[in-house]
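Sequence in, structure out. Go.
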Amino acid sequence: MYQQRLTFECFDNTTIDSAQHAIMDVLDALRYNGQILGREFPCSLENGSFSCHVVTPEHDALHSHFYSPQVSHAMAKLSEANILRPKIKELGRELFSDECESGDDAQAMILYTSFIHSCSPLRSMERFLPIPLYRIPSVANGDQRQIIKWQEDWSACDQLQMNGSILETQSVEQMSEPGTRLFQRGWDLSRRISYVSNKPTYLYLYRVGGTSLDEERSRRCPICGGNWQLEAPLHELFDFRCDHCRVVSNISWDFK
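Output:
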């Protein structure tokens, strides 16, 4: 991933309020298209221009040919606040982030995230590297907002269960039970991604608890009841994969 600076210059008088709203609309649109990552973007006023620091999946992630209709609209509206389209300067590789891949060669993909990840929740089955969301066609309404919102909800549940102080049981249930709203949203998104990308896309089903390692190894797919145990763990993480239901899971973390 890469750190980049976006510089928004004024071509006429403007106000801080107008500039803030116009720039935030651009950043939100870029975020919901997967072109910038995270939720906090340090911005400052420097010598009459506005400077924002962002992290992108690839060095060319901010190129206009990746724009969603929402990004194009937000960029066009900058002129109403007397602001030019941003100049982009690449600052260098982001040292503590995952490497990405385009996904062009991926035979299948996995929808997976956790509370420590801010990268794309879509990963290749083969290399398990994040695939930027702008690399696949939109799943709804022109951008990838629904995938980002699902990722935020999953990460929030993961954070709550890791903290172990409030709503731990409910959070684990949402991540690990097929009947929950969080799972159903993810499963629907994975099927939409499969359709628009023409690549099988699997959903990660979290697993913790259980009574014994032997019982864990004998688990069946919780959706179809089929045998889904892999001969060897995939990426040292997934012990189960159901190709019929397109879900992957792990032996309970209590016995890993």
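Check: The mean pLDDT is 94. The chain is about 30% helix and 20% strand.
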